[in-house]
Design brief:
This protein has helices at residues 16-23, 27-38, 40-46, 51-58, 62-74, 89-94, 104-108, 114-125, 140-143, 147-171, 189-197, 211-222, 258-271, 293-305, 313-323, and strands at 78-81, 84-87, 179-183, 202-207, 228-232, 246-250, 277-282, 325-332, 338-344. The chain has 345 residues and is of the alpha/beta class. The chain folds into two domains: 17-127, Winged helix-like DNA-binding domain superfamily/Winged helix DNA-binding domain (Arc Repressor Mutant, subunit A); 148-288 and 307-344, 3-Layer(aba) Sandwich (Rossmann fold). The strands form two sheets. It has a seven-stranded mixed β-sheet with strand order 5-4-3-6-7-9-8, sandwiched between helices. Strands 1-2 form a two-stranded antiparallel ribbon. Helix 4 (51-58) crosses helix 5, helix 10 packs parallel to helix 11 (189-197) and helix 13 (258-271) packs across helix 15. The radius of gyration is 21 Å and the shape is globular. It starts with 15 loop residues before the first helix and ends with a strand.
Length: 345
């Protein structure tokens, strides 16, 4: 049976605006939390500070505070120079409470929104909220162990791949490599896109239960079961299988904080042969972490419901070098996403 979706073609129209509506959904709640709970801009106007000092002065944790400051820098409310955050002219005029044109009262009515309340707790504890801020839902990592949530979540991520997958695959420098391991590959949509665009490539999706069973069904539905198989495993508990010369982390690393990203990259470096290729497909901030603004907004969503955030290309480069990779390159793909590729040294 031929694939029902041609993964060698990108859509005829550009859905970027539709992606940005959803990806940036939580940004306004983080801004509201900063204004109504912390009066962040007024205090930073009096005392420009680095990240560690902001965390100390506001009694907040590093990961969520980093995401918050990056969002405000990317939108021109703060400026970042020599690791010091200061309030810009825009912020001074409209976000500092002593200004006659302060917009704090305009945001005051948002302070009781559930996600605003969640952000206040996350900033103070570094513990993600439940998925979608639903009080009767488990945290994302626990919910993914249930069939119902895993099926719904995997389908949501799968439909993103119809656009993101072909663009990622076309940009990936596979060369003469032949075996791909798609680590925590979800539905397998990205593995299918890669083999569709690189005829000599076959792939294995490495996923824990119950997502591994969901992936098998979705791969077969697309007609790729002869070139893409599935291996059950947990990337944090199980050794990555060997025999692959390409590894893919697609929309995976952004779910985890730096210590766990280090663990995953080290595991990849250990399993890949010399000259093996690693592809990190994600939404990446720039080297200085001053933008792009849509990625900074997406990072707010990730910070809320996962243990992670969006990483800057400079951060990713440093982590890859530390893990033993070289020839590190960055290329934009589609809908504010990009790939960072690296070769096992």
């Amino acid at each position: 049976m031929p694939p029902t979706l041609d993964l060698t073609r990108t859509p005829a129209t550009d859905p970027l605006g539709i992606y940005r509506f959803r990806d940036g959904l939580y940004a306004v709640d983080l801004i509201a939390a900063a204004i109504t709970e912390f009066d962040l801009f007024t205090k930073l106007a009096l005392k420009p500070s680095d990240l560690a000092t902001v965390c100390h002065d506001f009694a907040t944790h590093r990961r969520p505070t980093d995401v918050m400051l990056t969002l405000f820098t990317a939108n021109g409310f703060l400026a970042l120079k020599d690791s010091i955050y200061s309030v810009t002219a825009l912020g001074q005029e409209h976000l500092v409470s002593t200004s006659p044109t302060f917009l704090g009262p305009y945001y005051a009515s948002l302070k009781d929104r559930p996600v605003v309340k969640d952000f206040i707790i996350i900033l103070r504890t570094d513990k993600p909220a439940n998925w979608g801020s639903y009080k009767d839902e488990k945290p994302w990592t626990e919910a993914m162990l249930t069939d119902e949530f895993a099926t719904t979540f995997t389908a949501a991520m799968d439909c993103r791949g119809f656009t993101l997958g072909p663009a990622m695959a076309k940009a990936s420098p596979i060369g003469n490599r032949t075996r791909l391991l798609d680590i925590a590959g979800g539905s397998g949509i990205y593995a299918c896109a890669l083999v569709a665009n690189h005829p000599t490539l076959t792939a294995t999706v490495f996923e824990r239960a119950p997502v591994d069973g969901i992936a098998r069904k979705m791969i077969a539905k697309r007609g790729f079961q002869d070139r893409v198989d599935v291996a059950a495993g947990d990337m944090f508990k199980d050794t990555l299988p060997t025999g692959y010369d390409v590894h893919l982390f697609s929309n995976v690393l952004h779910d985890w904080d730096t210590d766990k990203v280090r663990t995953l990259l080290a595991a990849s470096a250990k399993a890949l042969p010399k000259g093996g290729l690693l592809i990190v497909h994600d939404a990446h901030l720039n080297d200085a972490k001053t933008g792009p603004a849509p990625v900074a907004a997406y990072s707010a969503l990730l910070m809320s419901v996962t243990e992670g955030r969006c990483y800057g290309t400079g951060e990713m480069r440093a982590l890859l070098i530390e893990a033993g990779f070289t020839d590190i390159r960055h290329q934009d793909t589609a809908c504010d996403r990009s790939i960072v590729t690296a070769v096992r040294n």
